[in-house]
Amino acid sequence: MSVITITKANFNDEVINSEKPVLLDFWASWCGPCRMVAPIVDEIADERADVKVGKVNVDDEPELASKFGVMSIPTLVVMENGKIKNQVVGARPKNQIEAMFD
User: Fold this and answer.
1) 22 an active-site residue?
2) For residue 79, what is the DSSP state?
3) Which helix (H) or strand (E) holds 37?
4) Burial class of residue 37 in the structure, from the number of CB atoms within 10 Å of its CB (0-12 exposed, 13-18 middle, 19+ buried)
5) Would you say the pTM of this structure is higher than 0.70?
6) Which domains, ranges and CATH numbers included, belong to the chain?
7) Does residue 34 carry a catalytic annotation?
8) Tens of pLDDT along 25-58?
9) What number of other Cβ atoms are within 10 A of residue 54's Cβ?
10) Which of 34, 56, 77, 97 is catalytic?
């Protein structure tokens, strides 16, 4: 499954009402560590049919970033059943990102 761009408009449908766990990547185009994490997040989206992966551009969606208390990026959040299950700040290797689902 490909990465979904998450906005205020589709947040409830794609994240809150998702039947699968959702990995949210809060990022910005000017952020170096975000660019390091992006290919890993894309890879997880391509490899794992059991999860949904979404990206939230903090410059385009400041309300969503604020809702999650995002102060630094990248911030990775795993949501399950509409609730935050796990949240980390900063670039992480793939195995640590995938471990967020456990």
Assistant:
1) no
2) E
3) helix 32-47
4) buried
5) yes
6) 4-99 (3.40.30.10)
7) yes
8) 999 999 999 999 999 999 999 999 999 999 999 9
9) 23
10) 34
